[in-house]
Amino acid sequence: MVDKVLYQEKSMSGIILMCAAVFCFTLIDSSAKWLAAAGFLSLQVTFVRYLGHFCSSIILFWPQEKSKIFNSKRPYVQTVRAVILMVGTFFNFLALKYLSLNITVAIFFAAPLVVSILSIPILGEKVPLKKFLAVLVGFLGVLVIIQPGRVGFQFEMLYSLIALFSASMYFILTRIVAKVDVNSVSQIYSSGIPTLLLLPFALYYWVWPSSYLELLAMAIMGLAATSGHSFTTVAHSWAKASTLAPVIYVQLIFMTAISWLVFDHLPKSNTILGPIVIILTGLYLLRLEKRSTIDLN
Asked: Rounded to two decimals, what is the model's pTM?
């Protein structure tokens, strides 16, 4: 009985941590959009994001763990996970350069559906029909916000589709490595490998920031990346991938607030109704999680 209560508490804690993670991801996207508007190449923005992530991870984890942060029990999975994350980040930033924020976010928020499907063959998880239908309802909330009928297909949407699949595979692989590696190792791999791979290209195309705001945006990206992916790694060690996947919808609320405060995009009726649908869906998913725990009794 005690073990089942602990399981429920860990699942709830995982959901809370995932909410904190998606807020950090919102800061990353907002900073990237700011830098793209300032004229920086997506490649440089991607490199800065990972360089800041890597440096802050070294500062945070090296003093206590030293060289242990480089020792992974699944180095090949960590490497593939890092490369997939890098590819997804690059194409997401590239999409932000050509598409409006609501379109890129809408495509990305199909990730819970993809994760729920991929978690079955890759992780062997069972996704109840009620939970899967709840994810679909949450996606309907996304459609209410972006009103896709008013937007025609653009070739650049393919960039967001690549980012979508990459993000989904990243969450799946995070679930795998979280079982064998500590958070510090995952952070070093997911930030260090992209930094090394992008370094020669970034040096060739490098453009120095011309204002303190641009420097601040770069710093925020690095710190938010370290925090967000740390929260994600720990959350996936406490709860199922299919349980955490719908939490990503909460980013819509964060994105709406930042779009209003930073980019002066006032919310409309659809951006109010959509989040309400998403919040109600999240509450229903939490209820399903509690019931599944009770059923274990």
From this structure: 0.74
